[in-house]
Design a protein that fits this description.
The protein is of the alpha/beta class. It has helices at 2-44, 54-67, 74-92, 106-115, 127-135, 155-163, 197-202, 204-210, 222-231, 242-248, 295-305, 338-350, and strands spanning 96-100, 120-124, 141-148, 152-153, 167-175, 179-182, 192-196, 215-219, 236-240, 251-254, 264-271, 281-288, 310-317, 325-332, 353-361. The protein folds into four domains: 2-90, Up-down Bundle (Chorismate Mutase Domain, subunit A); 95-176 and 264-270, D-Maltodextrin-Binding Protein, domain 2, CATH 3.40.190.10; 179-254, 3-Layer(aba) Sandwich (D-Maltodextrin-Binding Protein, domain 2); 275-361, ACT domain (Alpha-Beta Plaits). Helix content is 43%, strand content 25%. InterPro entries: ACT-like_dom_sf, ACT_dom, Chor_mutase/pphenate_deHydtase, Chorismate_II_sf, CM_dom_sf, CM_II_prokaryot, G/b/e-P-prot_chorismate_mutase, Preph_deHydtase.
Length: 365
Amino acid sequence: MPIIDSNQQLQHVRARIDILDEQIQQLINERAGLACEIAQIKQALGLGESYFRPEREAEVLRRVLARNHGPISGQEMARLFREIMSACLALEAPLTVAYLGPEGTFTEDATLKHFGRSVKTRSVITISEIFREVEADIADYGVVPVENSTEGAVTSTLDQFLISPLQICGEVELRIHHHLLSKNEMISEIKRLYAHQQTLAQCQGWLNTHMLGCEHIAVSSNAEAARRVRNELDGCAAIASSRAQEIYGLQLLAANIEDEPRNTTRFLVIGSQSVVSSGNDKTSLLISGPNRPGLLYNLLRPLVDNGISMTRLESRPSRRGLWEYVFFIDIEGHQNDSKVAIALAALKEQASFLKLLGSYPRAVI
């Protein structure tokens, strides 16, 4: 008798799930219809160039996180909404996003995390090409790596900002997990290892313990490493992502071989639009001044005076003179916030060069 009751209960719960699935599907389509209505209103108002609103997307995802009470985690719930929003936006105006390829790179992972899987992606081979694609309106946005928690700044991205007119429209933080992939079944069979130079450095401790004596070959990306392993004879391996394993049909020999478990890379979304305040933002800028005692102190003093937190500081050669440097700075707040605006005005008086790279929402998921 209890078995019959349990079977009946199981069927009852499944029936409730079926009803909820139908309601969820109806609501998603209703939301999509409203998205199309918004597109028509924007077109009537002449706002056709601003279908994607980074501050609006961030606000929606923050509300999802705030009201979520489980059992699905807040991050997973936000990712589900990210995909719904991506599908709805594609009905308004499909976006094209350039990323550092080939297919299967962490930059592609960051692109899909930020924009969802309903965008059109364009794989390019260099960071400078990503900037060119967006500047030429071939892509609406680009996603570029800017810093890693263990290896520091991505200097090629910083150098592009010196010469590009593009704005920063958003940021993505991606936890990086490196996997050892091969067509072989045993680590002992591996004679050559392909990976990006930075990845080799991030896994150096593990490699010294488990693959001492194996030849290390640096390539342009981890996805390129996986592609080479797929096309070569046995005896080689790649360090790459789980997505690259799937794309290139390789076996997993060892998972999560990075030396730092919290290894995270930060990516920036670049575009031509300015972003209004979302209520929780960052502002990035470039500043420089003549080489004199106290230069950096004087440049940063307006931030201290106005109670503004600096979250990042990098220096690069300015390319304008010997021993002259430009400083890349991230601060909390939006450039239109009163305190930030006052500090930026004071900075402009102190610096011989100041370039605002944009204000944008802090990473949400």
